[in-house]
Predict the structure.
Amino acid sequence: MKFLSILTPLLLFGCVTTEVEPPYKGNALHHVVLCWLKEPGKIEARERIVEVTKTFRNIPGVLEARAGQVIPSDRSIVDDSFDVGILIVVADAKSLTEYLEHPIHRKAKKDVLVPLVSKIIVYDF
């Protein structure tokens, strides 16, 4: 009987899960930027791109802005040839256009990305 008194709460409450919702709702637009450095693997360049990406959070309409270095993989399906990935989340296409034209983004592109990056591929979905 003691066993059942311990087992019952575990069965009833032990499997309860909660979904974690992102800080944005609806059909947000994801702007993914993959960067190949002019000097591949240069740590300082990677860190500079990660830091400047944080400034994009100050652009109106940006819901999320983050960046990080590639994670090497032996899986054939994974493209790990780039150096830094950037993710920007905005509410819609209009917000994406405003982000791209914003002075903070233009300055980061001119002062950081263009001098450090040899190739960029962008995916928007």
The first strand starts at residue 29 and ends at 37. The CA atoms of residues 66 and 97 lie 18 Å apart. The helical segments are 2-13, 43-54, 93-101, 103-116.
